[in-house]
Amino acid sequence: MYRLLNIEFQKLMLNRASKILILTYFILLTSIALIAAIKFDIGPIKFHLAEMGIFNFPYIWHFNSYIAAIFKLFLAIVIVSMMANEYSNKTLKQNLIDGLSKKEFILSKFYTVLVFSGISTVFLFVVSLILGWCFSNYTELGIIFSDLEYLLAFFVKLVGFFSFCLFLGILVKRSAFALGFLFVWQFIEGIVFGLLRWKTDAEFATSVMRFFPLNSMSNLIKQPFLRLNAVQSVANQVGEKFDFDYAVHWYDVIIVLAWTAVFIFLSFRLLKSRDL
To answer: What is the pTM of this model?
Structure first.
């Protein structure tokens, strides 16, 4: 494993664009802390996000995981470019000539996906812990370390998404087209959902879409905004009640892990069937 990872990271470190994208991604993860600085007063209206409870434990794990997942596209570009460069620079063929099997080649990419996802999760944990410790109204250990399943969901979501990007990079061979296909697939899932909702009902459409790749990844961490105490208070004052399921469900995790296995297997089969 170490040998395969060493090969991949040597390639990444020699690519200036990849280094810039990786650095940008982690800077953006850190920039979540800047949300605490959003504060303005307009007459009697005082707005300070940190005081609204977004950094309270355990809510912070949900909020930060959801926000951080938005930035995953930066690493997705690295993953797709990583595969495109293998073809354009002919390093794939050279690696195979040097004795690397196609299985080891795919494993090296998958290990890189796992490392990126793992480092991102640990980094998010540290940033969230620091922010929560500085701004949370609740600092009891039992509260701090509850709801950590959102970090697990974040890790699984990144692994699944990057595995999909890896498959697209092998399938299309060009980073721009692979990313374009990613957006097209998102559009296709939206159309399918719209058609299902039109022909059946919202509940059935949502149940079916749960098994589509991008939608299943999205279901891992649902939007946290309606869960915020300030929003709940306003809703109660106007007589509204939000009935929304925010939990991380085990079956959603299993679906994404299954898609991850499918993408890695298809990547290997596709690479194995090609004449390089």
So the answer is: 0.91
